[in-house]
Design a protein that fits this description.
9 helices; alpha+beta; 195 residues
Length: 195
């Protein structure tokens, strides 16, 4: 399965570069997208659900605590599949401590749940599939989240993929394709917010 993912990623990149080589200005973003995907090399496959994988990663301790506070662990341990744009600990540090504490308190559970489910997209959208969606969308892809809102994925000139939230905030994918038995995790550097 891991080999298949790398093969698919290579095929998408090669196809995008071949189209870009035709010299048409309309295909320039495809070359950028192919470079973006190659830059986001997939992590080694993990076993376990998205929650189990996150629990085993020291960069996701705040996320795991938030998932537990919102009582979403059982849902995210389900069959899925889920694509989780997982904020790192550093992403949560960008939120003022008082706000984080408020969200983690029992009274903040509803808001915390809305924020966390805004980071989850139904289905397994790995880096290759996201790249294809961006190319098909003319440079952007609209992702509908479990929360019901949308995120806009875009390939940037520096080779990264960014997500734009409903409030106009952006998050950068800093690690793609952390595999789980019921989905895939993409680490992001900022907590995205629903409208």
């Amino acid at each position: 399965m891991k080999l298949a993912r790398y093969t698919a990623l290579a095929a998408v990149s090669a196809a995008a570069l071949a189209v870009a080589a035709c010299g048409n200005n309309e295909t320039a973003p495809a070359e950028t997208v192919a470079t973006d995907t190659a830059a986001m090399a997939p992590a080694a496959a993990e076993s376990g659900t998205v929650v189990t994988v996150a629990q085993g990663n020291p960069d996701f301790t705040t996320l795991v605590s938030a998932v537990q506070a919102a009582e979403l662990a059982e849902t995210l341990n389900g069959a899925g599949p889920f694509t989780v744009f997982a904020p790192t600990n550093a992403a949560f540090e960008k939120i003022p401590a008082a706000t984080r504490d408020s969200l983690m308190a029992p009274a903040g559970k509803e808001d915390l749940t809305r924020i966390l489910t805004y980071h989850v997209v139904p289905g397994r959208v790995d880096a290759a599939a996201l790249t294809q969606q961006i190319q098909a969308g003319g440079g952007t892809a609209t992702l509908t989240t479990v929360q019901g809102g949308t995120l806009t994925a875009r390939a940037e000139a520096d080779g990264s993929i960014t997500l734009t939230d409903a409030a106009g905030g952006t998050a950068k994918v800093v690690q793609a394709d952390v595999a789980a038995s019921n989905g895939v995790i993409h680490a992001v550097d900022t907590v995205v917010m629903p409208g």
